[in-house]
Amino acid sequence: YPRLHTKKTQLSEFNQTEIKALLGSYTKVLFVRDPFHRLIATFLQGMGTSTSFSSFIQEVLDSGTHNSRTAWKPLVSQCRPCLIQYDYIVMFGFLRQELGHLLRQAGLPEGSLLAELTDSQVQWTYRWLSEQMFSELSAQQKKQLSHFYRWDLAAFPFSSSFLQS
User: Fold this and answer.
1) For 45-94, where are the alpha helices, taking DSSP H only?
2) GO cellular component annotations, sorted alphabetically (predicted)?
3) Per-residue pLDDT at 55 exceeds 60
4) Between residues 115 and 9, the one the model is more confident about
Protein backbone atom coordinates (compact mmCIF):
# COMPACT_ATOMS: atom_id res chain seq x y z
CA TYR A 1 0.00 0.00 0.00
CA PRO A 2 1.46 3.38 -0.90
CA ARG A 3 2.63 5.09 2.24
CA LEU A 4 0.32 7.77 3.40
CA HIS A 5 2.01 11.03 4.27
CA THR A 6 0.76 10.89 7.82
CA LYS A 7 1.92 10.20 11.33
CA LYS A 8 -0.89 7.72 11.93
CA THR A 9 0.44 4.66 13.71
CA GLN A 10 -2.65 2.70 14.69
CA LEU A 11 -5.19 1.11 12.39
CA SER A 12 -8.02 2.85 14.26
CA GLU A 13 -6.63 6.23 13.12
CA PHE A 14 -7.39 5.47 9.45
CA ASN A 15 -10.77 5.67 7.73
CA GLN A 16 -12.51 2.53 6.44
CA THR A 17 -11.25 2.93 2.86
CA GLU A 18 -7.64 3.32 4.01
CA ILE A 19 -7.97 0.37 6.40
CA LYS A 20 -9.33 -1.87 3.65
CA ALA A 21 -6.49 -0.87 1.30
CA LEU A 22 -3.83 -1.32 3.99
CA LEU A 23 -5.06 -4.72 5.12
CA GLY A 24 -5.53 -5.94 1.56
CA SER A 25 -1.91 -5.22 0.72
CA TYR A 26 -0.32 -7.31 3.48
CA THR A 27 -0.15 -10.96 4.41
CA LYS A 28 -1.71 -10.94 7.85
CA VAL A 29 -0.36 -13.40 10.41
CA LEU A 30 -1.74 -13.72 13.93
CA PHE A 31 0.22 -15.60 16.59
CA VAL A 32 -2.04 -16.95 19.34
CA ARG A 33 -1.36 -18.67 22.63
CA ASP A 34 -3.59 -20.32 25.19
CA PRO A 35 -4.62 -17.50 27.55
CA PHE A 36 -3.77 -19.57 30.63
CA HIS A 37 -0.27 -20.16 29.26
CA ARG A 38 0.05 -16.42 28.66
CA LEU A 39 -0.86 -15.81 32.30
CA ILE A 40 1.72 -18.34 33.49
CA ALA A 41 4.45 -16.78 31.30
CA THR A 42 3.56 -13.28 32.52
CA PHE A 43 3.65 -14.39 36.13
CA LEU A 44 6.97 -16.21 35.70
CA GLN A 45 8.48 -13.15 34.01
CA GLY A 46 7.59 -11.15 37.11
CA MET A 47 5.24 -8.78 35.32
CA GLY A 48 2.70 -8.98 38.13
CA THR A 49 3.31 -7.44 41.54
CA SER A 50 1.91 -10.44 43.38
CA THR A 51 3.85 -13.01 45.36
CA SER A 52 1.58 -15.96 44.60
CA PHE A 53 -0.02 -17.10 41.37
CA SER A 54 -3.47 -16.94 42.95
CA SER A 55 -3.03 -13.31 44.02
CA PHE A 56 -1.64 -12.49 40.55
CA ILE A 57 -4.76 -13.98 38.98
CA GLN A 58 -6.90 -11.90 41.31
CA GLU A 59 -4.95 -8.83 40.16
CA VAL A 60 -5.73 -9.75 36.53
CA LEU A 61 -9.41 -10.30 37.27
CA ASP A 62 -9.69 -7.06 39.24
CA SER A 63 -8.18 -5.09 36.34
CA GLY A 64 -11.07 -6.01 34.03
CA THR A 65 -10.79 -6.27 30.26
CA HIS A 66 -10.63 -2.52 29.61
CA ASN A 67 -7.89 -1.75 32.14
CA SER A 68 -5.86 -4.91 31.77
CA ARG A 69 -2.24 -4.90 30.65
CA THR A 70 -1.45 -6.09 27.13
CA ALA A 71 0.36 -9.14 28.53
CA TRP A 72 -2.89 -10.65 29.75
CA LYS A 73 -5.57 -8.77 27.83
CA PRO A 74 -7.84 -11.10 25.84
CA LEU A 75 -6.49 -11.57 22.30
CA VAL A 76 -9.85 -10.95 20.65
CA SER A 77 -9.92 -7.43 22.10
CA GLN A 78 -6.42 -6.70 20.74
CA CYS A 79 -6.33 -8.44 17.35
CA ARG A 80 -9.97 -8.21 16.22
CA PRO A 81 -10.06 -11.58 14.41
CA CYS A 82 -13.75 -11.07 13.60
CA LEU A 83 -13.00 -7.82 11.75
CA ILE A 84 -9.62 -8.58 10.20
CA GLN A 85 -9.36 -11.56 7.88
CA TYR A 86 -5.99 -13.03 8.84
CA ASP A 87 -4.22 -15.09 6.20
CA TYR A 88 -2.58 -17.30 8.84
CA ILE A 89 -3.21 -18.00 12.49
CA VAL A 90 -0.18 -19.63 14.10
CA MET A 91 -0.71 -21.37 17.43
CA PHE A 92 2.00 -21.42 20.06
CA GLY A 93 2.92 -25.05 20.61
CA PHE A 94 2.83 -25.81 16.88
CA LEU A 95 5.33 -23.17 15.79
CA ARG A 96 7.78 -25.41 13.94
CA GLN A 97 5.08 -27.06 11.87
CA GLU A 98 3.11 -23.90 11.16
CA LEU A 99 6.07 -21.59 10.55
CA GLY A 100 7.52 -24.14 8.12
CA HIS A 101 4.28 -24.01 6.14
CA LEU A 102 4.25 -20.20 6.28
CA LEU A 103 7.84 -19.99 5.02
CA ARG A 104 7.06 -22.37 2.13
CA GLN A 105 4.04 -20.23 1.19
CA ALA A 106 6.30 -17.15 1.18
CA GLY A 107 8.71 -18.96 -1.17
CA LEU A 108 11.49 -19.27 1.41
CA PRO A 109 13.35 -22.48 2.24
CA GLU A 110 11.69 -24.02 5.31
CA GLY A 111 14.85 -24.27 7.37
CA SER A 112 16.16 -20.85 6.44
CA LEU A 113 14.81 -18.91 9.40
CA LEU A 114 13.70 -21.54 11.87
CA ALA A 115 15.69 -22.05 15.00
CA GLU A 116 15.51 -25.48 16.55
CA LEU A 117 12.05 -25.40 18.09
CA THR A 118 11.11 -28.05 20.59
CA ASP A 119 7.34 -27.78 20.59
CA SER A 120 6.73 -31.09 22.31
CA GLN A 121 8.91 -30.10 25.29
CA VAL A 122 7.20 -26.71 25.49
CA GLN A 123 3.76 -28.34 25.42
CA TRP A 124 4.72 -30.84 28.12
CA THR A 125 6.20 -28.09 30.34
CA TYR A 126 3.12 -25.87 30.01
CA ARG A 127 0.83 -28.83 30.64
CA TRP A 128 2.69 -29.59 33.88
CA LEU A 129 2.83 -25.90 34.93
CA SER A 130 -0.85 -25.46 34.10
CA GLU A 131 -1.82 -28.39 36.31
CA GLN A 132 0.25 -27.07 39.21
CA MET A 133 -0.84 -23.45 38.96
CA PHE A 134 -4.48 -24.16 38.16
CA SER A 135 -4.72 -26.21 41.35
CA GLU A 136 -3.75 -23.07 43.35
CA LEU A 137 -6.84 -21.19 42.17
CA SER A 138 -10.20 -21.09 43.88
CA ALA A 139 -13.29 -22.36 42.07
CA GLN A 140 -14.48 -18.74 41.82
CA GLN A 141 -11.20 -17.61 40.20
CA LYS A 142 -11.37 -20.48 37.69
CA LYS A 143 -14.92 -19.51 36.77
CA GLN A 144 -14.01 -15.81 36.48
CA LEU A 145 -10.96 -16.58 34.30
CA SER A 146 -13.09 -18.69 31.96
CA HIS A 147 -15.48 -15.77 31.67
CA PHE A 148 -12.64 -13.22 31.26
CA TYR A 149 -11.24 -15.18 28.29
CA ARG A 150 -14.55 -16.50 26.94
CA TRP A 151 -14.18 -14.80 23.53
CA ASP A 152 -10.61 -16.05 23.07
CA LEU A 153 -11.75 -19.56 23.94
CA ALA A 154 -14.62 -19.28 21.45
CA ALA A 155 -12.48 -17.79 18.65
CA PHE A 156 -9.46 -20.09 18.78
CA PRO A 157 -9.14 -23.89 19.15
CA PHE A 158 -7.51 -24.11 22.58
CA SER A 159 -9.04 -27.55 23.05
CA SER A 160 -6.81 -28.57 25.96
CA SER A 161 -6.99 -25.26 27.82
CA PHE A 162 -7.61 -25.47 31.54
CA LEU A 163 -10.01 -22.57 31.09
CA GLN A 164 -12.49 -24.52 28.95
CA SER A 165 -15.63 -24.98 31.00
Assistant:
1) 53-67, 75-79
2) Golgi membrane
3) yes
4) 9
